[in-house]
Specification:
By secondary structure, the protein is mainly alpha-helical. It folds into 2 domains: about 70 residues; about 180 residues, Four Helix Bundle (Hemerythrin (Met), subunit A) (Up-down Bundle). Helices cover about 80% and strands about 0% of the residues. Helix 2 packs antiparallel against helix 3 and helix 4 packs antiparallel against helix 7.
């Protein structure tokens, strides 16, 4: 009987629990509608209305799928504890390579320009605003770390408070980006103006998209924390991603604004 009980316990330990989610399917179909079908309709066949319809179907599917996936990660612990840290590490390595490609393109334009830098048509871009944005982003990392500390101590209300502060600070960073873009475009400095404007908007915009994604993750995590105790592993992974976005900004700001 003892051997049978031991065998039953061992079977229970090794029993596989299926995880069912509609989020990956929604993201896959949303990506299909938003990217290839929309681009083909508008750019190849010049069909604006079908392109709008495809984008209108794809974008909500992607947003809903990502929101659901993030919510599941925030509320359900992973059956394998080591998967999430390893996954975010692989993801960050991939993101670093993408940023390196963008930086390499910028360095090539910068170093091979024979007409001086910045090129003609570039307005005087303020260096004070990126310094303010740097302080804002560093502050957001500190506030999120405070939230993680509160959650580790069992203070979920404190975690919710500091997470909310982090979201507000992150939104302030994006508001600075929108303000800068609006100001520069009104001065005639658009992404297609010259050799500097293209990498400027590409690098700062790509970084801003990562900030936006992080804030979306935090908002979903906030809703999860208000309803139940969030998954500590997911909280840690979200923090690693946010700190990575913070570090990348130092490279973006130093290269785009101060070099």
């Amino acid at each position: 009987m003892t051997d049978m009980a031991h065998g039953a316990d061992e079977h229970a330990v090794h029993e596989h629990h299926w995880e069912v989610s509609w989020a990956p399917m929604a993201i896959a179909f949303g990506s299909m509608f938003l990217v290839p079908l929309t681009f083909a309709a508008v750019l190849i066949y010049h069909l604006v209305l079908p392109g709008i319809i495809c984008a209108g179907i794809g974008a909500p599917l992607i947003v809903a799928g990502i929101a659901r996936w993030v919510y599941e990660g925030a509320t359900h612990p992973s059956p394998t504890a080591s998967v999430a840290p390893a996954g975010i590490g692989i993801f960050i390595v991939g993101e670093i390579l993408i940023f390196l490609g963008l930086f390499a393109a910028y360095w090539t334009l910068r170093l091979t320009s024979g007409t001086g830098w910045p090129p003609a048509g570039t307005p005087d871009i303020s260096k004070i605003l990126p310094l303010i944005m740097t302080v804002i982003l560093v502050t957001s990392s500190l506030t999120y770390h405070q939230g993680e500390t509160r959650l580790h101590e069992g203070d979920q209300a404190g975690f919710v408070k500091w997470l909310g502060i982090t979201i507000v600070v992150g939104v302030l960073f994006l508001c600075c980006t929108v303000y800068e873009y609006n100001h520069l475009i009104h001065e005639g400095f658009a992404p297609w103006t010259n050799q500097y404007s293209a990498p400027f908007y590409t690098l700062t915009g790509f970084h801003a998209s990562h900030v936006f994604l992080g804030l979306g993750t935090f908002v979903t995590l906030l809703f999860a924390a208000l309803r139940s105790k969030p998954n500590p592993g997911f909280v840690k992974v979200a923090g690693i991603y946010w700190h990575f976005v913070d570090i990348v900004w130092f490279f973006v700001a130093s290269q785009v604004y101060f070099w």
